[in-house]
Amino acid sequence: MSGVSPSEAPLAVFGGTFNPVHYGHLRSALELVEKLDLAQLRLMPSAAPPHREAPACSARHRAAMVALAVAGEPRLVCDERELQRPGPSYTYDSLAELRGELGPRRSLCMVMGGDAVAGLDGWYRWRELLELAHVIVIARPGWNLPRDGAVARWLLRHRLDAAGDLRAAPAGGVLVEELRPLDISSTEIRRLLATGRSARYLMPQVVLDYIEDNALYR
Ligand code: ATP
Could you report the per-residue pLDDT of 115-166, keeping only the tens digit for each? Predict the structure, then answer.
């Protein structure tokens, strides 16, 4: 692929189950937009995550919560494409769709947490992801990058030195970004809610109100 035009800021996509979305996701997303000068970051809820048990909360509810959480912040958007596709929600397929929409020259980045990168070699067509996009790895509290194995070698081979490199090509590099650590997880939030405790201040109030109104995570 040829180089990108410098005027076009990269577009990023951040996949996850978002079950439910919380400030760990949202703050990381916003910090990435500002640090890397991204045109937009799309949070993309997985309808049928291939690598974990199907979430009890429907994809429709999870996407609705993401949409509510990012309303009013135009640089963050909920991308519902995986809800429209039947079968397992493969990130490769979503990136291929996005690449088709953006054309071959625009810089596209896929964001993932440091915990997710350790299992990347189990993902569908994982080695081909870099043909479609760059990968941005968020260094997450309590997780280290893999030091040996296929993913460690892949990191060494493709790692970018600086954020500016994301603009030099449309795809193909891996950038590791250390962001403000916020040790919040959806698992912990589900546990709090299931036991009748409060998840206030871990996520936007509008999401908590949605959970209450729809009697989720009881
Ligand atoms: P669960 O506890 O159900 O596994 P989670 O909180 O890890 O959920 P996911 O929806 O699985 O959230 O995560 C989507 C993406 O966000 C993943 O790449 C994950 O690594 C990242 N992520 C989750 N929590 C944080 C956080 N606190 N800070 C930075 N990244 C996060």
Answer: 889 899 999 999 999 999 999 999 876 778 899 999 999 999 999 999 999 9
**Spacing, Cα 113 to ligand 1 middle (Å):** 6
* Amino acid letter for position 54: A
Tell me the whole-structure pTM to 2 decimals: 0.94
3-class secondary structure, 81: helix
Which tokens go with 189?
């939030």
Beta pairing, strands 11-16 & 108-113:
parallel
Supply the pLDDT for residue 1.
45
CATH tag for 11-213 (out of 3.40.50.620, 3.30.450.90, 3.30.2350.10, 1.10.3720.10)? 3.40.50.620
Q: Could you tell me the distance, in angstroms and rounded to a whole number, from the CA of residue 16 to the centre of ligand 1?
A: 7
Contact between residue 17 and residue 62 where contact means Cβ atoms under 8 Å apart:
yes
> In which residue are the tokens 């036991």 written?
195
CA distance 17 to 45: 5
Q: Which atom of ligand 1 is nearest to the CA of 179?
A: 29
pLDDT for res 7: 54
